[in-house]
Amino acid sequence: MRLRDFNNSSPRELSQAISSGRRNFLRSVTGATAASTIFGSSPLYGMLANRTKKAIVVTFGGGARDDETFLPDGQENIPHLLKELMPQATFFSQMVNRGILGHYVATASIVTGAYETFNNFAAVSPNNPTVFEYFRRDLERPATDCWVVAPSNGFARIGESAHKLFGPGLGAGVILPKRLLSAALSANSDSARYQHLLRDNYETPLYAPTLTGKQIELSRMADLLKLSVDDFAAHARSLVSPDELSVYVAKQLMRQLSPSLLWVTLHDIDIAHSGTFSLYVDAIKRCDRHCAELWQAVQKDPEYSGNTTMFILPDFGRDSDIDSGGNGFQHHRTGDARSRTTWMMVLGPGIRQNVVVDRPVDSTDLVPTLGSLLGFDARYSQGKPLAEVA
User: Fold this and answer.
1) Count of alpha carbons within 13 Å of 148, Cβ hemisphere only?
2) What is this structure's pTM?
3) Cβ contact 237:194 at 8 Å
4) How are beta strands 308-314 and 341-347 bridged, if at all?
5) How far apart are CA 223 and CA 219, in angstroms?
6) What radius of gyration do the chain's Cα atoms show?
């Protein structure tokens, strides 16, 4: 039964229907198995005991709907997720976001494992400790071992919290590729030609948030990544989207610093706010390709291959075409089950392959799962570790 047949159902029934649609579709396309039939610990976990475990998290702002992804009509938009990554992954078909559906505040909630309640457009740090602070404090890791590649100025303070026991000095380095590109181009008065790469956000195009937080400066970025400013700008000129720039920076970080915890937030899909369906679908296709590129980079890098777990998830969903309170693919205003019920894909050593977990899980479960995987205590998180991963 198509998801639109459940329009008059309760939120719980609708969430289950959405999950069932994803599960059945994946089974028909990839032959995926239900996790409950084969669940058990993997001997590969023990083999990793003497190696430094690493994790890469890829989130994307402006979640793609099942209509354009995990339903038959959308499968052509996600060939890499379906044919390349899913056969290697455990897929959580019912990840629920119960918080505020704004991209920065929702990402902050995922980063902390606790639902943040601040204004989505406020230049503030998360109130709860971030995964980066738990990681660095408990494992005594240096600042160079965890990084965030963020999509816009509004994410500049995502790396560290305002929590009195954590906060300044314990967070991740935050790289804002758009801002770095703007600085690199400004010297040549060339930035006007690249507005498609420099637009800060899609939801409120006239809003330019105050830049705060400890983001990396252009000269520092060039030094860290062993990349000249001219090389960075020249590469950016050949790109068609901001997410391509973010993935480029992420791969440079992997090559030069090999961080154990890398968080990349893609944002092209949120161009859906413009109301142009073709641009929204193009962005889905790019996101699909970028996820595969990052996983391929993991496999080719001896610092990452065989010891890295990768998590891929939307921050939340989008409205349906038939909800009178929303605007279809364009926005995420209703807060209904379609906007809140998304998914997560997990790949790596010890992760069961081509498996679907169909029980409800919470977006706040990611941080404690990372804690169990990497060895830190996410003590202020509201979530719990996912047994299928940790």
Assistant:
1) 27
2) 0.86
3) yes
4) antiparallel
5) 6
6) 20
How many other CB atoms are found less than 10 A from the CB of residue 310?
23
- The three-class DSSP label of residue 235 is helix
Strand partners, 90: 346, 355
Cα–Cα nearest to 199, from 187, 190, 208 = 208
Query: Domains in the chain, ordered, with CATH?
Result: 57-374 (3.40.720.10)
CB 254 within 8 A of CB 304: yes
Tokens standing for 163? Answer: 């929590």
Six token digits for residue 71: 């339903």
Tell me the average confidence (pLDDT) per consecutive run of 10 residues in the chain, 390 residues long.
44 65 79 66 46 91 82 92 96 90 88 92 90 97 94 85 89 86 64 58 52 64 75 73 88 94 92 83 93 97 97 84 65 70 94 94 97 97 93
Q: Measured at the alpha carbon of residue 328, what is the angle toward residues 326 and 332, in degrees to the nearest 5?
A: 60
Q: What residues have CB less than 8 Å from 230, skipping those under 6 apart? A: 184
